What does this fold into?
Amino acid sequence: MELNSLTAISPIDGRYRHQVQHLDDYFSEYALIRYRVLVEVEYFLFLSRKRFFGLDAPSRRRLQAAAEQFSLEDALWIKETEKTTNHDVKAVEYFLKSRLAEQDKEATDLDISEWIHFGLTSQDINNTAIPLLWKHAVEFEYLPGLLNLKRQLEVLARDWKDTPMLARTHGQPASPTRLGKEILVFIERLENQVELFIQVPFSAKFGGATGNFNAHYVAFPNKDWVKLANEFVEGTLGLQRQQYTTQIEHYDNLAAHFDAMKRINTILLDLCRDIWTYVSMDYFKQKTKKGEIGSSAMPHKVNPIDFENAEGNLGIANALFEHFSAKLPVSRLQRDLTDSTVLRNIGVPFAHTVLALKSIEKGLDKLVLNKEKLVQDLENNWAVVAEAIQTILRRENYPKPYEALKELTRGRKGIDKQAIHEFIDGLKISATLKKELKKITPFNYTGIPL
It folds into this structure.
């Protein structure tokens, strides 16, 4: 069958294609080839600026155009060449040499093509192209997506900052909280982990076949190749060059990125489960859309499918991130090829993460606060003010206040306002103190104001 959204094996390229198709700018085979071309061209131009060879304006423009105007047809040309070379990066080199050799009446230098890929091994290209596309995907897609979600949560936290809600620890009624504060918990967790994430540099390897600049040094022993490589990788590509490597980069920082994204995804998964639970408790209703069906059998249902969808995608993403961060930093001796196929898949957990972000945003946008249910739960759980009463009694040196409240409330149903006030009236304390205790309700015993 011809490949389309219905015949694709992966739902990323099938069912969910319309939501993540923009990621092919970073993670498709075409994108990888395009980034390889970009690095090869930038290195060639860098060498020319460093006076290794002369480069006329037409040749410079031709190579710049090869990178800037790289097309699907160009990628197909490279893939066709790869059938002969059986080497993907060498096919890129031949593509650029062919572009450099094209007839142009303005060109004066047609003998400089061997400066393309000079002194390099394929991993000098892969281990700069992949970090570069990863950097762009993170900066242009992932972090903006997280920021949008965080802003959405901030709006909800602000709107619900004064909304009292029964807290539940171990699933049991606990000291009341405010709904807005519970949203702030997730905002703070996300902010902390994003801060850690952005501290990890985007690392690259660039140093020849086994990381020692063997070919560079034997050809030009008087050149400071470490300085030149640092200048190229950091100044031109905007990546951080690892100073001592084998044929491949360490992948330690890339693994740190994966682990950081995994932690962030775990926080989002926790958010999804909490919101799902609040929906099941009827704390939230959900906006409905005409024509939508919640169940093929039960017409009344409006399911929290966006949070369930997000949870599933976050789980898939984390399973892959876990494997990638454990596998990539391990390579036999100066290199083996196991990193190659793994690196080609980094877009998969990235796409599942993006899908989850979109689902959470969609789900949050559907929420409608059911204040009546929150009020009802608080009214039905006056026992939660026992903590407040016994703490104030401790302040007043009242004997064994905890034990007295425990006797009244532990494991008992039907503890209402009347029962609490009758208990207070029976205490041998001043009228002023009784008045203070009776002011405490499940609705105002919510801690420090936001």
Summary: The beta strands are 164-169, 172-178, 203-204, 240-241, 284-286, 367-369. The two ends are 59 Å apart (CA to CA). The chain has 19 helices and six strands.
